[in-house]
Amino acid sequence: MNHKEINISIIDCNHGFFTPEQEAVDEISSDNRRVNLHIHNFSENSNREDIIGECANSDILVVQRFKVDNLLIERMPKCKVVARYGVGLDNVSIVGDLRKKIEIVNFPTFCTREVSSHAISLILYSYRRLDCVLSRKNLDKYWGKPDLLNEVKSPGDTTIGIIGIGRIGTLVSLGLKSMGFNVIAYDPYVNEISEVDMVDLSEVFIKSDILTIHCPLNEETEGMVDIKKLNTMKKSSSLINTSRGRVVNQKDLELALSEKIIRSACIDVCDPEPPVSNTYDVENLYITPHVAFYSTGSLDVLKRGVIEESVKKYDEMQSNSSRLSK
């Protein structure tokens, strides 16, 4: 069912371009129905009253980091769909009876291969001790003396642990298994996966030479990786995180590295973002600037997909409402 006009408001987005969204809107619009795209320059910390004032007539809200909850949506009675740029929904919390009236859209598949390949890159960086051998100051030390890298075991003697064996975790496991690594995994919602030993949470910390995190951020996982669990890991082990920063207690991780409880960590996400300046000084902490999701095509897929799926959900809601009212 087509409606004469749909207003879409993008509240916050730091991508820097909106061509894919506009192209999607132009393709969806027709002589019978116009879709209007309103791009605002708010941030995650913007004043809510300002947002409500400018976006009160929106049928669809699109956010990146701005927090959307019942208090906001109750002030925006026209809104039927809330969409988020990205995989997770940790900044969208609409509950109770209001949740039944609002469709929530995210895009969990737009960067699966990008994130999994980035995670594998960080795993291999840590496994091959590239932090040592890529350093110009260490070239003379290691040149012709590979035996100095005595912690580099063969893949078959190296155990990679995975927390979260969904889309990304599964691709990571397949890539690692193809190289001969021993892979174990913990996921409370998965009982079995081919050629991967499922273990409990304590085991995945204890047994892993490298532990990589691929779980969503929620009440169960926030702060899950803390100093207590880090203390159970091997002193020669490494932690990889390309999921959400708040899954790891950042201060505990920095403490574990500074006291050499674990050997190293490679992270693409942290808490807060961007990291505070002294985080960069932590020895053996290697940070990529939240780019695991990115490829030249992934953002276009995300930006078009969010608009297309939001309008689809909006049309479905309006169509269902019309049938019920007959």
β-strand number: 14
CA(first)-CA(last) distance: 14 Å
Pick out the low-confidence regions: none
Overall helicity? 25-40%
User: Can you list the strand order of the major beta sheet?
Assistant: 10-9-8-11-12-13-14
Largest pleated sheet = 7 strands, parallel
Kindly describe this structure.
- With 326 residues, the chain is an alpha/beta fold.
- The chain has two domains: 135 residues, Rossmann fold; 176 residues, NAD(P)-binding Rossmann-like Domain (Rossmann fold, 3-Layer(aba) Sandwich).
- The protein has eleven helices and 14 strands.
- The strands form three sheets. Strands 10-9-8-11-12-13-14 form a seven-stranded parallel β-sheet, with helices on both faces. Strands 2-1-3-5-7 form a five-stranded parallel β-sheet, with helices on one face.
- Helix 10 links the parallel strand 12 and strand 13.
- Helix 1 runs parallel beside helix 11 and helix 4 packs across helix 7.
- The longest helix is centred in the C-terminal third of the chain and has 28 residues.
- It is elongated, with a radius of gyration of 23 Å.
